[in-house]
Amino acid sequence: MMLQVASDPLMQVENLVVEYSVGGKTIHAVSDVSIEIARGETLGLVGESGCGKSTLGRAVLQLRQAVSGKVLFDGHDLTTLKGEALRNMRRRVQLIFQDPIASLNPRRRIGDIVAEPLVIAGVRDPEERKRRVSEVLSAVGLDPALVSGRLPHEFSGGQCQRICIARSLVLNPEFVICDEPVSALDVSIRAQILNLLEEMKARYGLTLLFIAHDLAVVKAVSDRVAVMYLGRLCEVGPSEQLFARPAHPYTALLIEAIPVPDPDVRPTTSVPVGEPPSPIAPPSGCRFRTRCPRADARCASEVPELRVVAPGQFAACHHPLI
Amino acid sequence: MSGALLSVEDAVVDLPTPRGNLRAVDHVDLAVGAGKTLGIVGESGCGKTMLSRAVLQLLPKKARLSGRVMFDGQDLTTLSAEKLRKLRGRSLAVVFQDPMTSLNPVLTIGTQLIETIQEHLELDLAQARQRSTELLAAVGIPAPEQRLAQYPHQLSGGMRQRVAIAVALSCEPQLLIADEPTTALDVTIQAQILDLLAREQQRRHMAMIIITHDLGVVAGRTDEVAVMYAGRVVERAPTPALFKQMRMPYTEALLAALPKLDVPPHTPLPAISGRPPDPTRPLKGCSFSPRCRYSAGRCSTEKPRLSPAETLEHLYACFHPLAAGSGA
Lengths: 322, 328
Description:
The complex is a heterodimer.
Chain A: E1 9-22, E2 25-38, E3 42-46, H1 53-60, E4 68-73, E5 76-77, H2 83-90, E6 93-96, H3 110-120, H4 126-139, H5 144-147, H6 157-169, E7 175-179, H7 187-204, E8 207-212, H8 215-221, E9 224-229, E10 232-238, H9 239-244, H10 249-256, H11 297-301, E11 307-310, E12 313-315
Parallel strand pairs in A: 3-8, 3-9, 6-7, 7-8
Antiparallel strand pairs in A: 1-2, 1-4, 4-5, 9-10, 10-12, 11-12
Chain B: E1 6-17, E2 20-32, E3 37-41, H1 48-56, E4 64-71, E5 74-75, H2 81-87, E6 92-95, H3 99-102, H4 109-120, H5 125-138, H6 144-147, H7 157-169, E7 175-179, H8 187-204, E8 207-212, H9 215-219, E9 224-229, E10 232-238, H10 239-244, H11 249-256, E11 307-308, E12 315-316
Helix pairs in contact in B: 4-5, 5-7, 7-8
């Protein structure tokens, strides 16, 4: 495998292809993606809406059926597991969603919501459940005595996200997929939740897949970053290195498009006009070529493979910037 | 504030709720001159959208507004519904966050543009159609002629926002209010839409108000910035002066809480603890004081007034402002 950078991989995605059909047309959501996540690592996954980053996250959890490819979690191929075996494996992997309010059942009390995974996992002893729920609620900064009996609507978005994080931690998972966990939150609350995720990662020894469209947010928490465009990986590399010296023109474009809170930095005008093409009929060759300033004939005819451009940094481009 | 195209004077918006009165906008003064861009920055619930609705006279039915909204010499709060309708869309235009809700899903792009143009300008169908095509081309929509026959759902989010901007610009407005115009869009599309708004604003010498929660959006693209918190303007200054020397601790904290690209990964973010106060339970003192690390003494008992710093243009409402020269 090209991307064998992790010495102790917890999650290995190999040549994963996910497609689904809408109105008789096939959407190429994830096309031949391979990536590894080391134990204890945070991998950031960035890209614009429709690039397939959420589908990839769901396919890892087997919430979406892959057309082909493997998802190895701690050596077990999740794509071939079924029934009890898959359920047991899933307990070790949890998911946090973007909209914290929508992910909580509005008619159930917080204590029951957080205890639900324990009930499903077969923890029969109510005292044991109560002890676990209290522990995780305290860990995310909520007072169990005050919040357990209340309903989700009594909480703000930031507090609901804390509750969702508590629920995801109650089964002591090893791997947590965070799908845009802070994009629905205000700036002042966002920083609190990002800090909380970092604390929880350290406290419970988690491995994270952190999916977001905001590069600055991803950089704040990730050891390595993977950039996706129209279902394919463009670039993977250590966070700081990738942001300092992007190799793929798309990564460079994303970095350039971030609004900088400094009036002396003039907004650049080099962002190309145009939008991502449809994933129903992605461009031949390199999928970014229709918006790329460096594209030539080869980009249209030949799919670029991920290649090493710097230590630990890989880019899928015929004309990389470095 | 004389000579301003729009001036909001001592505006107060109250909304009755089951939990009691909610003061959404609390004694706000603002002004924007022709050809200038004002940024209004704040988090959800700070009153920025209610303020823009007060300007447009599009407040919810139950809301009570006091104060004056002077636009081009007339007080909008005293105008009849008919006069307001003529003004909105003609001289006073708006672009909302979600273009899908501002465009009619069952009418073609062409119908929506032509309808707006014919409502306000004396043009026949052929002229209105011609103008619509030109507008779509101006906002960067490829094949504008064909787009006229399409429906909003056939376009992407970015393209829909371009159409919404074309509709807003169709009658050469004097003031354009853009309420979170790029929040629903991807980062590369956001840059394109902000560039488009800035270009059209300069070309048409329009006044523009950009409402956003992102200090990054206003930094390079506005002349003046007003920061709102809990219904009040807590700091207001020409954009370069504000970023050079923030005086209000909330503004500084808001900027500090943004993840930065030049900081190594895993650096803890300087988060603002707590959350904004319940707007139905107003605080006696400074609304930010429970979350402010400089809070002391009268901060919890007395409301600081918006008062000038070194220059008359830079206003802030704080008893313990950040020292000049300390750097933000």
